[in-house]
Write a structure and sequence with these properties.
Number of domains: 1
Helix content: over 70%
Number of strands: 0
Shape: globular
Largest sheet: none
Structural class: mainly alpha
Strand content: under 5%
Oligomer: single chain
Number of helices: 5
């Protein structure tokens, strides 16, 4: 499988990981790993910031696919196959309207902003 095919597969695997996280057939450990993977995929905060020339991009190119692969191994294969099928049609009607999934990420940014302001002014 070449790089383009893997990137395309990753594009459907990340929503499938999110769907697997919500299924009751998924083991608890796999749900925790799926949650970590989804938060890392959606979060603008990286382990290595993107403005660092080469390492910033390698962080996303290596770490995110590794998290997805580890999560896929933890989820039973029949459950994840169902999740992949659901994820393929996820974007058919446009973007999902569930904006409240962004609340944890916005909360983290607000907390960071509060800590910076507090450190500067107090």
């Amino acid at each position: 499988m070449n790089f383009k095919e893997r990137a395309k597969k990753l594009k459907t695997d990340i929503p499938a990981v999110f769907i697997a996280m919500k299924k009751k057939e998924t083991p608890i450990g796999a749900k925790l790993m799926a949650g970590l993977t989804v938060v890392y995929a959606l979060s603008p905060i990286d382990l290595i910031p993107d403005f660092i020339p080469v390492l910033g991009c390698l962080d996303d190119i290596i770490l995110l696919p590794a998290l997805v692969a580890l999560t896929i191994r933890m989820v039973p294969s029949d459950v994840f196959d169902e999740c992949r099928q659901e994820a393929e049609g996820l974007w058919a009607g446009g973007r999902p309207k569930k904006w409240y999934y962004a609340l944890p990420i916005v909360s983290v940014w607000l907390l960071i902003l509060l800590l910076i302001v507090k450190a500067i002014y107090f």
